[in-house]
Amino acid sequence: MLTAVSGAILCGGLNTRMHGQAKSHLRLGRQTFLQRLTQSLQSVCSETSIITRNPEEYSSCNMPVHTDIFSLRCSLSGIHAALSYSPRQHVFITACDTPLLVPGVIRLLMDKGSKADDVVVPVINGYFEPLCAIYSQNCLPVLSRLLENKQAKISGIYSRVRVHTVQEVEVRTVDPHLDSFINVNTPEDLSALQKR
Predict the structure, then answer these.
(1) Cα angle vertex 154, ends 151, 155, to 5°?
(2) For each of the chain's 196 residues, which pLDDT tens digit applies?
């Protein structure tokens, strides 16, 4: 069991399918995606930060804002930055396009994980969910090597570190409809979510 983790929200995508509009600023009800995610993370995590390539865009947020260390534009670079800046050994990482994240999922990953785990990741529909996972700072050397070699796939890390998987059946005990894994990539996705 992990008793304390930091939280990090990755806000670094190109947003091309959203016609350049930052997903973190999209609204669901009265709140932006970022506001919803911040509430979810702050209810569980010891501290929460934003990882972005555009820090000025988040200057009014009442939390630390950090930029990527590596120039390669990918989620792996965001994970590396989140771990590098974290005051804690373990960091829960999420992306800014998953506004329905259930805090219970973070707690479940913490309960199932241990200090010996480098990654605690849910497996949904047979696939890792790497942007709803807990990473240890022990991953930093592997992440650095991958990024130095311009390898951007998150899956590249899993064969090189100790991974603890949390199966879908366990996740459904805290998130029955798997809402935490609904991500918004297009205007159509947003419209469908707003109609729910």
Answers:
(1) 100
(2) 999 999 999 997 655 555 667 788 888 889 999 999 999 999 999 999 999 988 998 988 889 999 999 988 889 999 999 999 999 999 999 999 999 999 999 999 999 999 999 999 999 999 999 999 999 999 999 999 999 999 888 988 999 999 999 999 999 999 999 999 999 888 888 888 887 7
Return the CATH number of 6-194, one of 3.30.930.10, 3.90.550.10, 2.40.100.10, 3.30.420.10: 3.90.550.10
- Residue 107: exposed, middle, or buried by beta-carbon count in 10 A (0-12, 13-18, 19+)? middle
